[in-house]
């Protein structure tokens, strides 16, 4: 858990509801008879871990993503799996907009010039208003981003495997298009899809080359959604500007090429991590486990 969450308070409060509650920050145990397992995305829930928990019936991932869980093994055991897809939607949406504005307003360059004692007279700063903003994946975060973008007076395109109802499209002011058309038409593209067999490598070199020269690509979903080798090549050739919060290998590998791109703003998989969002994750997690313990259908069920 992040250091700003007081673990002793979490344990004390949890024991008021679950008398046998035990908080661990590792998985170094031989066997555990727990029926409920709560994990973050930093814990790999694989066949080995599951074999050490013979009575496990319910897994709650305290995160939006759950690609750390071996779904096949969980399904074989008949274990119920839930995530929390709503707690960080505000945080990620704001992070995306911050990255877009940082590029459009040339803030990285201007900041470095000022710290170097220079006073730049010219800048390539642009307005967000009037741009075409493409959202790939219209789940909870994608919809929240669209709601936030309304005030900036942008044209919003979106692509998802499931199209929104017409009334929801009208409420959000969004237009549904195919993925290739979205990439061709958008000045800014933001990715918000889960990592699955179908989304792995979704943006390959062919699709990356469809983007406008100088367009902005922001990825706060999962690094494997984009072919990173192709991304480095195409970003250099087409002058793409990048806002990357996720990477195929984390922590990022020095010399991967991404750290050498001057037109890339990088953050360490932290878009959804704020003091407020982590407290929302904690509250939603406890509430959902309570629903399960009380025999009610939990929210956000994956399996």
From TrEMBL:
* NAD keyword on record: yes
Cite the entry's keywords alphabetically.
NAD, Oxidoreductase
| InterPro entries given in the database record | D-isomer_2-hydroxyacid_DH (IPR050223), D-isomer_2_OHA_DH_cat_dom (IPR006139), D-isomer_DH_CS (IPR029753), D-isomer_DH_NAD-bd (IPR006140), NAD(P)-bd_dom_sf (IPR036291)
In this chain the D-isomer specific 2-hydroxyacid dehydrogenase NAD-binding domain maps to 97-271
Which molecular-function annotations from GO does this UniProt entry contain? glyoxylate reductase (NADPH) activity; hydroxypyruvate reductase [NAD(P)H] activity; NAD binding
Disulfide bond keyword on record: no
Assigned GO CC terms: cytosol
The residues covered by the D-isomer specific 2-hydroxyacid dehydrogenase catalytic domain are 24-302
Query: So which domain of life are we looking at?
Result: Archaea
Q: Which PROSITE patterns match?
A: D_2_HYDROXYACID_DH_2 (PS00670), D_2_HYDROXYACID_DH_3 (PS00671)
The entry sums up its family as follows: Belongs to the D-isomer specific 2-hydroxyacid dehydrogenase family.
Q: Which PANTHER family match?
A: 2-HYDROXYACID DEHYDROGENASE YGL185C-RELATED, 2-HYDROXYACID DEHYDROGENASE-RELATED
Q: Under what name is this protein listed?
A: 2-hydroxyacid dehydrogenase
**Organism of origin:** Thermogymnomonas acidicola
């Amino acid at each position: 858990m992040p250091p700003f969450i007081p673990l002793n308070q979490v344990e004390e409060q949890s024991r008021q509801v679950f008398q046998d509650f035990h908080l661990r920050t590792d998985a170094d145990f031989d066997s555990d008879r727990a029926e409920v397992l709560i994990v973050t995305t930093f814990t790999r829930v694989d066949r080995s871990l599951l074999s050490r928990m013979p009575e496990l019936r319910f897994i709650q991932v305290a995160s939006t993503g759950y690609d750390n869980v071996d779904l096949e093994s969980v399904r074989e055991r008949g274990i119920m799996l839930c995530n929390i897809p709503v707690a960080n939607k505000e945080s990620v949406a704001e992070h995306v907009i911050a990255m877009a504005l940082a590029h459009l307003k040339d803030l990285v360059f201007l900041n470095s010039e000022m710290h170097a004692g220079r006073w730049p007279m010219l800048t390539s700063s642009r307005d967000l208003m009037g741009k075409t903003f493409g959202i790939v994946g219209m789940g909870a975060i994608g919809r929240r981003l669209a709601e936030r973008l309304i005030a900036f007076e942008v044209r919003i395109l979106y692509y998802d495997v499931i199209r929104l109802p017409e009334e929801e499209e009208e409420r959000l002011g969004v237009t549904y298009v195919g993925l290739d058309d979205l990439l061709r038409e958008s000045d800014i593209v933001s990715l918000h899809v889960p990592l699955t067999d179908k989304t792995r490598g979704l943006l390959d070199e062919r699709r990356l080359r469809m983007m406008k020269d100088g367009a902005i690509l922001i990825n706060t979903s999962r690094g494997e959604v984009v072919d990173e080798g192709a991304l480095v090549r195409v970003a250099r050739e087409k002058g793409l500007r990048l806002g990357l919060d996720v990477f195929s290998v984390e922590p990022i590998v020095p010399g991967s090429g991404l750290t050498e791109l001057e037109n890339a703003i990088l953050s360490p998989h932290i878009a959804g991590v704020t003091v407020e969002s982590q407290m929302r994750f904690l509250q939603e997690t406890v509430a959902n486990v309570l629903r399960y313990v009380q025999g009610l259908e939990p929210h956000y069920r994956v399996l």
